[in-house]
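Why this split exists: single-chain examples teach little about how molecules sit against one another. For that reason, every record in the complexes split bundles all components of an assembly together and asks for one structure covering all of them. Below is a record exactly as it appears in the raw files.
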Amino acid sequence: MNSGIPIQYFLILATLMFFTGVYGFLTRRNLITILMSVELILNSVNINFLAFNRYLYPHKLEGMFFSLFIIAVAAAEAAVAIAIIINIYRRFATINVEEVNEMKF
Amino acid sequence: MASNQIMFILFSAMIIVFSILTVTSRKILRAAVYLLFVLVSTSGLYFMLNYQFLAAVQLTLYAGGIVVLIIFSILLTSHISQNFESSGWKKNIFSAIAALTGAILAIITILEYGFTASTEAAQQVDMRLIGKSLLSVDYDGYVLPFEVISILLLAAMVAAIVIAKKGAPKKIVLPKLNQE
Amino acid sequence: MINFSYTIWIPLLPFLMFLLLGLAGHKLKPKLSGLLGTGGLGLITILSYVTAFKYFFTSEKVDGAYQKIIASNFTWLQFTDKLHIDIGVLLDPISVMMLVVITTVSFMVHIYSLGYMKGEKGFERFFAFLSLFSFSMLGLVLATNIFQMYIFWELVGVSSFLLIGFYYQKPSAVRASKKAFIVTRFADLGFLIGILILSFNTKTFDFITLTDPMGTAIAQGGGIAFLGLSVMTWSMIFVFMGGVGKSAMFPFHIWLPDAMEGPTPVSALIHAATMVVAGVYLVARMFPIYALSAPVALNVVAYVGAFSSLFAAVIACTQTDIKRVLAYSTISQIGYMMLALGVSGYGGHEGLGYMASMFHLFTHAMFKALLFLGAGAIIHAVHSNYMTEMGGLRKYLPITHITFLIACLTIAGIPPLSGFFSKDEILAAAFHSNKLLFAVEYAVAGLTAFYMFRLYFSVFWGKDTHYSHEPHEAPATMTIPLIILAVGSVVTGFIPFNKLVTSDGKIFESELELMIAIPSVLIGLLGIGIAYIMYRKESAVPDKLAATFKYSYKWAYNKFYMDELYLFITKKIIFRYIAEPVAWFDRHVVDATMNAIATVTQGVSYRIRGFQSGQLQKYAFVFITGAIMLSILFIYLWK
């Protein structure tokens, strides 16, 4: 299925996706979109793992299981993050990260 | 050009385009939908790499679970058509420079490194094998991470309930410090 | 062997009473707590009398000497095999005698206080402190070792502090209590040093080992250590310093007159009869060491005692506050006891001075407590401390008058009252040992008679003063102790002390020496006579005399400016040249270093606090940029 596609393509794709996520993380102000950027980052990592697994160690399953666990962790993280976001919204009536800055000096 | 290459280009293009849209869209609900497209395309990549189970998990869990969760929380906290105030151009430019630098650095590294593809026969990934590996205590078994993840999920569930529980929020009156 | 183990309850009972009254006193009715304290003390008074009777009359003697009995003992702090501090009960003639003195006077004072302190705020607190004091004092006299004695020594200091400052709303009382505490504490420093030197040399705290005349402790006395005196002498001088502080001898006497700010019963109990004689008791307790191993230290004791007695007697002649007169009289009388110890030898008839000192301690406790309680009754009636505001009180206070007169006659040494016998023994001892000291004491005897009768005449006779309200006799709770103590003052002179309390525990023969007794009575009568002329009726003689000897009168009236001298030394010299530089160093060097650290930290953090902006994305930006930088560094530049 993947003949004719070098591994580098997958890796470059994952890199681009990763840094798109980073860019989003750095620029978005809404906490929920920041969370989405994090999801992008996690996904790019997943792609990397699977590509490595398929191209370099096709007889093993480490990469796949790692991705599986990352998905599980991402799910947990999303649940907790959204709980926190809702709580922040209740307390500050906003989810703009720049206005939630009580932790400054 | 083989069909798989076309599919790869298609998925890649979708992923990159929708990723960029996700992080730049002014409307938050649209951003969520773009994210959904990215995730679906990613699961397409998984299919291409012959990891059907993972692709299915990606579809159900990410596309079906997390995105829905995100959309719910958007509905709880924002107006649907709410526009972002655009963040400062300075911030955008610096972030873009940082991201681009990182990306270029990573791509150069990837291109410089010669990957040698393995010639070993591929392992057939079927459901039975996945289930056995997850619960196996052998050398290739994953029972310990499995258990750890299950504990983590439990803890996350409890934490989410506790944090989001509706109690009268204690009003914390913070002393205003002199802004210098 | 008789079982004396119950004697542990003699100090313990007041302690329990202190805990009860101190912790639960405010819940009880004041009257009940007063009665509880008094009852507890009455019980241990009986116990003490029983103990004294059993000890002196039924216990076995060895070689005709009273034995030292350890009635109970337990090891409190065990440091090493040799070094341990015990708490216990030691019975020997002087501790048993002190038991009787303390419990008797304390019991009388308790009864008296029921009347005197009636309606005062803090009535139960007063009784709690009295119980604490009784406990500490009994623990002190029953101590089996010098360290236990030191502990209780400090405890009596604390309870004295608490009782002097009983009226803590009065600034003068607070000042007086602080003064008493600091002065005695300073002297106790010497005591502690003395204990350490002594026990370092002898390797023991135990009194029985220390004072065994055949023992090693005494044999070690020889050898010159420092400034031409032996180690033992130095340690004994330091130990005596503690005694000087507690007994208000010169030069640490300054706290005692001020201590009269406390309630009068307290003055009677602590500052006349019991605590202030602790110094005498201390010297008596260590007497074999003084006599056999440190004769120089014993001479110091004698001269300090003689000087204090003269010095205080002169001041007493000029004071107008009746309690202060009595305070100086106390200093003077304790000086007598010290002198008697100082001129005494060890064993047999040589130990006459020792016996006389203990005898005088005993009788003095009775008549001085009586004098103070009488003074309390007078103050109670007149509401003033100054004898210039009194006069002609004999009509209003008949019982107080009679008892006070008895006490005055006793202290003046008129036969057959007790003071005559004990003072006579002291004079005899001094006469046989040192003629100079004898002459001083002889003069002091006259002065004593003079100032006591000056007090007596100007209070009870003299001019008829008009009082704003009719003075009335004190209630029965106050007069009964007066009567009992008056009886005590009369009869205690007939106790044969030479058969009971002697330096080596053995009986010796002593008879009245008429050669000394007759002149001492005469000089007492002379003092009374002069006082009679000057103060019986209102007369101009005292004022004229004061005008003639203007300067010396002024000096004596101002207590020879001792307080001012102390203030000068402490304020002008110690504070200015030691404390102020130290304070300066503390403020400008120690504090300044700390302040500099704080200032620098504050300044730096003020400048860098902007990093902590609270902006999540700034942190993330810095983190990512840093990660990229590090990657570049390690991949491309680090080669």
